[in-house]
Amino acid sequence: MPNFLAPVWVIARRELAGYFATPVALVFIVIFLAVSGALTFYVGGFLERGQASLDAFFLFHPWLYLLLIPALSMRLWAEERKSGSAELLMTLPLSVSQAVLGKFLAAWAFAGVALALTFPMWLTVNILGDPDNGVIVAGYLGSFAMAGAFLAVGGCMSALTTNQVIAFILGAAVCFLFTMSGVDMVLDLFRAWAPPLIVDSVAGLSFLTHFNALSQGVIGLADVIFFASMIVFWQFATVLAVSRTRGA
Amino acid sequence: MSEMIALSGLTRWFGPLCAVDGISLSVNKGEVLGFLGPNGAGKTTTMRMAAGYLEPSAGRAVIAGHDVATQPLAAKAALGYLPEGAPAYGDMTPEGFLKFVAGVRGLKGEAANTAIARAIARTDLAEVLGRPIDTLSKGFRRRVGLAQAILHDPPVLILDEPTDGLDPNQKHEVRRLIADMAAEKAIIVSTHILEEVEAVCSRAVIIARGRLLADGTAEELLARLPHHNAIRLGLASEDSEPARAALADLPGGGAVEVPAEGDGLRVLPGTAPPGDVMAAVMAALGTAGIRPREVYVERGRLDDVFRRITADPADAA
């Protein structure tokens, strides 16, 4: 369906160029690389582990994304509505879903670029040892999928407000819920009273649970479907949120 | 099909506030409709509904035969729209921005280049093409918005205050641009500059408090003024009383009054055509031996029409 996708690419290209037109891209990438590196070496004990793997690197990605991805997604719609350009965009001949998808793809591609720039980590483990590169590829794919899910949540939150700060806080808060639901501390609260089915459902909604499976090199169908359906669901919610602003 | 814009019963509520209350109007190809009203009258809301940005609470808008609610893409493809304040992506240059709009509108390659070059030439943007829109003056930004609206040479144009923030020369240019395009398009222009209506519009509507209060040509609107076609006499002060007596029982003429502003006398239009009244006035003054300093037919000003209609909606039709 080239007719559906043609405007999507135009929107995505403009949006991606928008990241690089301002220092946003540079600041984001520098902070992402610096913090992910620092966490890996100093908190994750990358060198002390003595393992030729990127476990210590991927371990912190959910927490890193929790702060950085909402910063990337907060402007997706909030700024558009605040500056009035949403009115222009919505009166061009394209559907809300095309605009939503185009913007999401641009942000996701940008996150992918930032993630790809961590390749020196991969070089390092390959120089120092003999890691299982299949596991590393799975880790990168899992991290990229998780970034997409975080972005989809954040983009939806951005469509709910015209204020970027609120968009950031909402995005981080919702992402936090979806991350923490896989932590033992939270699950223990449920284990005390709830049947296993509920505990598993709560744990099953967590980015953490699914990402950990992928980053260990196990590309399970359930995890892939989880991230894919998270992205689709939140895209759909974003379309509703954007449409609501035109509401009668 | 000559009816290019058709709004019927457009209504929009914002919570308990009715911003637009059942506005119906139509614009044919070749017409430029002036959209007048005080600030907050509902002009922008009406235009947003016509352009498909806001959904109406009731009523419908049809652009070039396409219902905006059920065939939004076809309606939007036929429409060039300049939103209020001419929003654009401030980090882009006018050139990049126009390329983006061309891309979304499905213009490719040579067709896109031709369209962009024509829009740039018509809005005189060549000198700022490479500068970020954020750094441009208000006038240039408005022209970028206009260029975006006319880019695909649409049959329908809706322009929300296209001359706001422009200097007199630029206003003149934009009006000329609108006049140039008028013959083959249907155009709605909102403004609160009334001289603009006489300069570019073939018809005007006046709305206030969300309601359509008047619809007609500038001449028809002016005819609503009691002074329209009245005969105004400039007289030396000692001639005022004798003249008043001489004009008192003019055949076919109306009452004679002393105008609230200025001096002299005013003969209100009566039953006879203005030309006959004028002849009778001149004859009566000649008989009385009074020589007026000036004589002219008052047309009235749209400002007065506007004030009369919008200030007191109770007695407006």
From TrEMBL, chain A:
Transmembrane segments: 20-44, 56-78, 99-123, 135-153, 165-187, 218-242
UniProt keyword annotation of Coiled coil present: no
Membrane topology according to the record: Multi-pass membrane protein
Main localization (coarse): membrane
Cell location: Cell membrane
Keyword tags: Cell membrane, Membrane, Transmembrane, Transmembrane helix
InterPro entries: ABC-2_transporter_component
Record-level GO cellular component terms: plasma membrane
PANTHER family: MEMBRANE COMPONENT OF ABC TRANSPORTER YHHJ-RELATED, MULTIDRUG ABC TRANSPORTER PERMEASE YBHS-RELATED
Descriptive protein name: ABC-2 type transport system permease protein
Organism: Roseospirillum parvum
Lineage of origin: Bacteria, Pseudomonadati, Pseudomonadota, Alphaproteobacteria, Rhodospirillales
Automatic annotation (TrEMBL), chain B:
SMART domains: AAA (SM00382)
Matches recorded under CDD domains: ABC_DR_subfamily_A
MF terms in GO: ATP binding; ATP hydrolysis activity
Matching Gene3D superfamilies: P-loop containing nucleotide triphosphate hydrolases (3.40.50.300)
PROSITE patterns hit by this protein: ABC_TRANSPORTER_2
Keywords: ATP-binding, Nucleotide-binding, Transport
Entry superkingdom: Bacteria
UniProt cross-references to Pfam families, sorted A to Z: ABC_tran (PF00005)
Keyword Zinc-finger: no
Residue stretches making up the ABC transporter domain: 5-234
Family: Belongs to the ABC transporter superfamily.
Name assigned to this protein: ABC-2 type transport system ATP-binding protein
Organism: Roseospirillum parvum
